[in-house]
Specification:
The chain is 17% helix and 40% strand. The chain is of the alpha+beta class. A twelve-stranded mixed β-sheet has the order 7-8-9-10-11-1-2-3-4-5-6-12. The radius of gyration is 27 Å and the shape is globular. This is Lipoprotein.
């Protein structure tokens, strides 16, 4: 028996150099910083596209109120221009914003333009489409940072709630869009989905318009083509006017006055 044990020990000793320690389990890769990932996209002449759908729910029914699509063009510091097209009961409206200047065509202004003019020039605006559009713009670094701070962050999502008052403090997009609401204290629930690179791929927001038994506004936005080459230009000057025939309600030309 002793002889057998000695042989076993000798055999194990001989095999020892061949034994390799198992590697420690690899740590999970660190989640990307969404704000840093966003700023990395700020290259002149490039941008991102988006599409969105707005629905209104109440009294046991849900209706589609608006669809919108558009493009953001970046500069070194952030959004340099945007081009959006909204379709709703007011018709088809296109809004181009370049810096602090906005151009609106179709929709609520179509019948108010002088003959031969197809664009109304104003300061940058959300147009009537902003009234039912996405209030949360994840392409703005300050806005995204606040959403992260107030929300719960996982590897692929950011969820939380924010008031319109808080949004207005950090988001030029929310301010000029003037989304449908009763007061600034209204809370907006949001869910942002992230790609593996930390970029936002979708935003879903919802809030109650009015009291707790009122209508719920839900906006579902999708972002694609990060880094796409983009060139947004102002309309031809011969088609633009700064005057309208008649008076347009502020609610239809958000931010234009």
């Amino acid at each position: 028996m002793i002889t057998f044990m000695k042989k076993t020990i000798i055999a194990l000793a001989a095999c020892a150099p061949l034994l390799v320690a198992l590697p420690a389990q690899a740590a999970a890769p660190k989640a990307k910083d969404p704000v840093r990932a966003l700023k990395g996209q700020f290259v002149a002449g490039h941008g991102v596209r988006f599409t969105e759908t707005t629905t209104l729910s109440g009294e046991a029914r849900t209706v589609k109120a608006q669809s919108r699509k558009g493009t953001f063009q970046f500069g070194a510091q952030g959004i340099a221009a945007s081009d959006t097209v909204a379709t709703s009961g007011m018709g088809r409206e296109r809004v181009i914003n370049i810096g602090k200047v906005g151009y609106t065509s179709g929709g609520s202004v179509k019948k108010l333009l002088p003959e031969g003019k197809t664009w109304y020039k104003s300061r940058d605006t959300g147009g009537a489409g902003g009234y039912l559009g996405q209030a949360i713009n994840p392409v703005e670094p300050r806005t995204l940072a606040v959403l992260i701070k107030k929300g719960k962050v996982t590897r692929r999502a950011i969820t939380g709630k924010i008031t319109f008052k808080e949004l207005d403090k950090v988001s030029p997009w929310a301010t000029k869009s003037a989304p449908l609401r009763v007061n600034k204290a209204t809370k907006v629930s949001y869910t942002l989905t992230l790609t593996s690179a930390g970029l936002v791929s979708s935003v879903k927001s919802s809030y109650v318009y009015g009291d707790k038994s009122g209508m719920t506004v839900t906006v579902d936005s999708r972002f694609t083509g990060w880094g796409t080459k983009v060139s947004i230009r102002a309309p031809k000057s011969t088609t633009v006017t700064g005057k309208l025939i008649g008076e347009v309600p502020d609610s239809l030309l958000n931010g234009s006055k």
